[in-house]
Amino acid sequence: MRRGRFEFGTAAVAQAYSESVSFDWRLYRHDIAGSIAHASALAAAGILNPDEVEQIKRGLREIESEVATGKFKWDKSLEDVHMNIESALTKRIGPAGAKLHTARSRNDQIALDLRLYVREEITELTTRLRAVQKALLLLAQKHFELLMPGYTHLQRAQPIFFSHYLLAQIEALERDHERLDETRRRADVMPLGSGAIAGSTIVVDREAIAKSLGFRRVTQNSIDAVSDRDFVADFLFCLAMIGVHLARFSEDLIVWSTSEFGYIEFSDPFATGSSLMPQKKNPDMAELTRAKSGRLIGNLMSLLAILKGLPSSYNRDLQEDKEALFDSVDTVRAALEVFAAMLPELIVHRERMESAASDPQLLATDLADYLVRKGVPFRDAHAIVGKLAASGKPLNTLSNDEFNAASDAFGADVHEIFDLRLALRGRTATGAPSPENIERQIARWHKLLVLE
Ligand code: ARG
């Protein structure tokens, strides 16, 4: 690369500043797969003979296994994964290796490698996402009819089943799953053959390359093909959103594991102690997950900032997408792995949840609904029950006289309102936590997550 117009080598500081092989070496399998597909296309275009293609394939396979076993020596003076592999190949097989870069630029090469990488990682992340969903589902099945207070503004709101809460987490992760699917579709477009910006006078069969690499589509504009990192931004958004979902879930678990709530406890293998306070059991896995969502958001922001204001086509700035991408992938992979292992061991203090759920104030809305059924407009019912609640007396201890003093619409049947299970049984609208609904939802998820 430094031959040709260059008289001098790169300055040591410039080389250290600009090399990417220290991190983009991770793309070696994708780079090699792309090169093998490209070599076949060059043969079809009459640039390589069958023997040369064989030499290239064999050489690249050797390099691949040397990298996999840690034997391959990466050379930072060769800048990136592409030039390291190409130079090693040429050293090994000679002129055939030197022909490989015909009709190709590192601009379309890196676009291809990244798309292959993103596609593969999406498959892996999907599996891990599913594992967390399954762990949540198992917990929901186990604690099917366990009551707890539902919170809004972190204040006791209305009774729910713990399983309803767990199913809510599954729903959020399902949207992440759908987003990943969509991102895979967007990444599934083959850019090779776009060259540096304007293709090449040596014409390769791009559709054939796409087919051999399992792409459904090929890019339709060579300028766009080397510029486009939308699929990386999409992917980083998916990963940030997973992070945000796990952070919210973490926050709930952290709060519920305090002595004040005492609803859950992390198992010993997933909790940490304090170096000073012997009594402490800390929820560090959840806290770290809460924090890591910050870097996932940061990585997305950093890519968007890199892309903003770039001129069209390839610019070296695009090299800076990779560390953010790799970091987000590693972070989410690890978080999902920890959650899938931690959730089955979660200790649930059922009696604490149930006793908190027996707080009659949780049924204040149900009491207002009772008045509505007796013909009182909801706004008036809200005010009447609000006054009763403000009196400080538990609502289920009020006498008939006290109820009637507040409104003559109250009858003797008002006390039935305070049967918690009855209250939940009445919540039958789609999405609401009646036991029948939850049963149906569990069956739906079981079909999707376990049977499929
Ligand atoms: N290492 C570069 C990147 O990650 C590869 C493409 C380099 N292209 C170039 N014309 N310098 O984007």
Topology, element by element:
Elements: H1 12-18, H2 21-24, H3 28-44, H4 50-68, H5 81-93, H6 95-99, H7 106-142, E1 147-152, E2 155-161, H8 162-187, E3 189-190, H9 206-212, E4 217-218, H10 222-227, H11 230-256, E5 264-265, H12 284-307, H13 321-342, E6 347-348, H14 350-357, H15 364-373, H16 378-390, H17 400-406, H18 420-425, H19 435-451
Parallel strand pairs: 3-4
Antiparallel strand pairs: 1-2, 5-6
Helix pairs in contact: 3-4, 3-7, 3-9, 4-5, 7-8, 7-13, 7-19, 8-11, 11-12, 11-13, 12-13, 15-16
This protein binds arginine.
Arginine binds at residues 20, 24, 80, 106-107, 110, 314, 316, 318-319.
Describe this structure as you would to a colleague.
- The chain has 452 residues and is mainly alpha-helical.
- The protein folds into three domains: 12-102, Fumarase C, Chain B, domain 1 (Orthogonal Bundle); 107-355, Up-down Bundle (Fumarase C, Chain A, domain 2); 358-449, Fumarase/aspartase (C-terminal domain) (Ribonucleotide Reductase Protein R1, domain 1).
- 61% of the residues lie in helices and 5% in strands.
- It has helices spanning 12-18, 21-24, 28-44, 50-68, 81-93, 95-99, 106-142, 162-187, 206-212, 222-227, 230-256, 284-307, 321-342, 350-357, 364-373, 378-390, 400-406, 420-425, 435-451, and strands at 147-152, 155-161, 189-190, 217-218, 264-265, 347-348.
- The strands form three sheets. A two-stranded antiparallel ribbon has the order 1-2. A two-stranded parallel sheet has the order 3-4. A two-stranded antiparallel sheet has the order 5-6.
- Strand 3 (189-190), helix 9 and strand 4 form a beta-alpha-beta unit.
- The two termini are 51 Å apart.
- The model has no long low-confidence stretch (mean pLDDT 97).
- Bound molecules: arginine.
